[in-house]
Amino acid sequence: MKTNVANGFGVQLMMRFLLCLTLFAVAPAWSADKLTPERVDTLMAVFGRLDPAVVNANDKLKAALGQLLDATRGETRFVVLVKKFSVKGRESDLLTVAMKHPNDAAGVEALQLVLVGKEGGAILKKVLLGTDAKAAEGVAVALSNSTHAKARELLQPLVIAPKVAGPVRKAAVRGLARTEAGAKQILAWAKAGELPANARFTASTELSTARWPAVKAEAAKVLPLPFGLNAKPLPPVSVLAKRQGDVKRGEEVFFRAAVLCARCHQVNGKGIEVGPALSEIGDKLPRSELYESILDPSSGISFGYEAWTVVLKNGQEAFGVIVSDAAEELAIKQITGVVARFKKSEIRLRQQSSLSIMPAGLQAAMSEQDLVDLVEYLASLKKK
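Request: output the structure for the sequence above.
Response:
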């Protein structure tokens, strides 16, 4: 028995010796500022076998680990190293992983490693309410995918706070809707009239498929799904996204006068350019997001296409997208496509709208099949 234990201990010592020998064999060839991909792979294999206690007790190994962390910054395997060796002070790098991979297990774990830190909550709040829209959205999505109790605490105020970007609010709604308590809180806000307009569609979609019968039944009354032609309720987006449509019929729907798509968007030069051109939209958005952009246009307004109201001192008013903001003149493209220009000295009020310039309720002019065909057409619009 003692012999077996001794042999086992000897094997462990030999393994540690060989691993360290491998590590120091490649160390002299390291670049001071960058490791080659091959050496990074070698070191990942080495540190994957090393005991954290051995590394943390050796200055050279700790320095090597630091270089490896720098070389894998922003990658999912960076998270593996931080977690295994209990590395501190890498919150910003962990956030980068969470922002880049918010729907992956590694991204969620990276965020949770930040969250459990002493200043984690404050760090995440700063990003969520900051000016970097993409960073805020990435963190919000990662939080919504997390099961950590602190994640729900951070998401809850984002649902009803007045100055929250649409994508961040949507992610917060989705995260809360995944727990019964969170779903009930969303319903309570809706009943009290406190749920913002750009959160209602996401809330109705999420709660329409809730796994709690009472919540689902109440949501159908308080937050009904949008209606299509003839006041027929539409299925949830998750169901619509699985449907196949007809591209040719979808093109006809797009340019149909009653549907209004071509009055604000161009496809390959056809239509009026008020909102973003859609000639390559199929490369940019999956089907689910195409449906959401039609059914809930205010929840994900594209950067640079925010709607503004401008009121002059003489009472004249314009509503549209700002296309030029010069020192003395403001130019705004109205929903007709016409650009109006105003001297800044004549402007009394300039206010950004929380609503999209694209009107809500366009699906009411379409049958369910029209909508499916339209999305099929939009999904087919890709770079040639």
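The beta strands are 266-267, 270-271, 307-312, 317-325, 329-334, 339-343, 347-352.
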